[in-house]
Automatic annotation (TrEMBL):
Keywords: NAD, Oxidoreductase. Residues 325-437 form the UDP-glucose/GDP-mannose dehydrogenase C-terminal domain. Belongs to the UDP-glucose/GDP-mannose dehydrogenase family. This is UDP-glucose 6-dehydrogenase. It catalyses: UDP-alpha-D-glucose + 2 NAD(+) + H2O = UDP-alpha-D-glucuronate + 2 NADH + 3 H(+). Signal peptide: none annotated. It comes from Hydrogenophaga atypica.
Amino acid sequence: MKIAVVGAGYVGLVTAACLAELGNDVMCIDKDHGRVALLQAGGVPIYEPGLDDWVQRNQHAGRLRFGTAMAPAVTHAELIFIAVGTPPQEDGSADLQHVLAVAQHIGQHLNGFKVVVNKSTVPVGTARQVERVLHEAQQTRGTCVHEVAVVSNPEFLKEGAAIHDFMHPDRIVIGLPEGATGDRARTLLARLYAPFNRHHERTVWMDVASAELTKYASNAMLAMRISFMNEVALLADAVGADIDAVRRGVGADSRIGPSFLYAGTGYGGSCFPKDTRALAHSAAGHGLRMRLVEATEAVNAAQKQVLVQQVCGRFGGDLRGLRFGIWGLAFKPNTNDMREAPSRTVIAELLARGAELQVHDPVATSEARRALSQDLGRPVAEIDSLRFVDEPLDALLAVDALLVLTEWKCFHHPDFAAMAQHMRAPIIFDGRNLYDPAQLQALGFVYQGIGRRNQAASRARVSPQAETHRRVAHPG
Ligand code: UDX
């Protein structure tokens, strides 16, 4: 089928590459000339495992082309996907200016019936707005007005697993307009997604508003599970229970299921924080309060501070003269995305308390430099107390403790003996519950996870080495 994808960002690129892989003829366009030039030259502007291969393979096969001009893409396509950003505004609502600008451009070049498929995460009612803009753009152009079906087809892919998620969807949610245009769109989309439905029907057909709301409800539900488990983890510490055992017990109930029950340093990324706020904002616009969604967000903001509290519980609020290693900066593994990453909160707080930090991430260093420079109000290169290092063990050199913030695979089974040798004191604050507390205690580490019976560790005294070091660095 002939397809245009507008937006060569995360969702757009993955959608374009995967639809081309299925044998479709795909034109992916973006207004960013630099990005398009890079893609045309075989580069991929984002970090996503496997995506560069998929893009290049389909480019070579002639099924995937990149460009900046809207007109050829619109005239080429039967189906036009809108996959542009909907960044949050100050008040938490989604900014629709890019989506509506794209709709206007599409409207100016329509040459027959098209299905416009919205993949961007947009509040309920956006498809109607897109429809109106398409109509008005055609009227302004002064030619005949072509029929358009505006469809909602939200994307559920996870960063770091995007290709797998696209190619093995749990479900494909499609919201159709009423009437004959909706029927025509259904026929085309059923054909497009047929390869996913061969053994098992995965498409969930519905109306447009319900599809738009499904995306927000799904993300809010997942975020809520995480915040709930983070709250249970705090209680687990207080009562001497182990959140990992609780997670296994709770997740074994088939009505609940095992996913998204991992307590940690709080969720980040481009979706959960933005979408929970946008959902609460949408509800408020209709005179409703979504208390669970608001609480989910508030619990998450507090959770990003938990590791800092643990550090202060052990070393006191004044961290001058103390040095900490940090493993992991990205909001989760297999991405270089720093948006709303808990590491940003933790690093800003520790630096503000006078700590010295040695940080390592296997992939996100450049992104982290940019994000932290922005947060800290000056280039990180000018901040002596914040050092980026290339090797995990280098981050541990003479540190008073290690903080694990992202569960990259390379941190799962480290050489604990080598770690202890590098560290001034063998103390680990594990924000991702990667390690077995009993094993680490046996190896001589002081270990604090999230909800892993932390009482004993937090009651323990500061290590004599750290005290001595601090007294020397800050006499008086
Ligand atoms: C999410 C949704 O999963 C996806 O369907 C949607 O399209 C976009 O938002 P993504 O943001 O890429 O995807 O990452 P995900 O793997 O879902 O993790 C989100 C955050 O939750 C991360 O910060 C992760 O560390 C955290 N998380 C996840 C937990 O703290 N505990 C868990 O059990 C799962």
